[in-house]
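Appendix B. Raw example, untouched.
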Amino acid sequence: MSGGSALIDLRPLTTSPAFARLWIGSTLSGLGGQLTIVAVMLHVFELTQSTLAVSMIAVAGLLPMVAAGLYGGMLADAFDRRTVALLAAAVTFISTALLAVLAWTGLETVAWLFVLSVVNSAANSIVMATRSAITPRLLPRDLLPAAAALQGVTVGIMVMAGPALAGVLVAVAGYAWTYSLDVLLMTSLFLGLWSLPRLRPEGQTVRPGLESLRDGARFLRRAPNIRLQYLLDIVAMTFGQPVALFPAIGAVLLGGGAITTGVLTAAVAAGAFLSSLFSGPVGRVRRQGLGIERAIQVYGLSIAVFGLVLLAATLGWMRPADTGEDSGAITLIVLAAIALAVSGAADNVSAIYRSTMMQAAVPDAMRGRLQGIFIVVVAGGPRVGALYAGTLATVTALWVPPLFGGILILALVGVLVRFSPRFRDYDALNPRP
């Protein structure tokens, strides 16, 4: 669907059978990965009855995930990327299979759940860094935006369907069957990777190690467009991630409890999914730096609007005079969900441009390391954002972090881009890092 169509461009799937197999495998295995992530959280809570223990799963996995992403990027720039991805996927497969075995035998412990989930996330970081470096070798440059939009579809499916399906499976079939289904779905990723040709990096390679990392850092210093997109993403994720507030918003402010929390979470994913489905015009934009700026500005504005909706709820506007404790204010919940859906769509459009810029402007021999550094940004930004939102909401009110954060995003994006005028002039037909 090319030309002037508003619908997603499916040409990457028909142009490159190898990319199509890899995309299908990544989508199915990603859905399975979401099943395991949610199941492990539920499993840990069942064993400990501690919310703190559940939250520590993400904390424990952060540093290994970042380190693995950086090292995996170096591996992808030194060796055959097909082999690197297959070995990392094998580690993910084994750790998930061990979770299933422990659950089937009744030998699971909190320690084992922590260790295997950390190993799983670290190995998956290597797969992600390597797979992103593989994509430009499978497709012509003009189809990279469409490939990034298809990745948005994958993420939307994972986030919308994964947690809900995991909850149902755990409740109906138990943890063992849930982990086992992930093992089954993960075989599709092996099929996608196994069918790839050998993909050694093009150009001069550097053995993994400190010098390889320094080489990547030196390139980043000479790549103002790539460097700025990292900074813009950090700003957006730090000040525009109110997800940590959703449980309190559902329980205290808007009402509806867990249902409202689920609606708000799903709204973000739904926005990303829909923006990918109607991403045809996105792939035809040449000034992708300007596209990133505008998309993040829309993101900041939508987060600020979400804060205004929470402020309205705090002041008692549009709430029924007599509501039950869990009935919620439907109008406010709908408005909040719309604002979050717009934020998800804007973030996805920004991600399409950022991914395309990374894959088109960065030399092949450097792509793995730059993707590894990007994983640090993607993994660290939302966690810093959760700390910002949680801390500020604790000392002020629930509406303050999104409203103040959205305004701050608009201001910082304007300042950063103003000092980097070449970013707005970035031309997709003549990509420069």
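End of appendix B.
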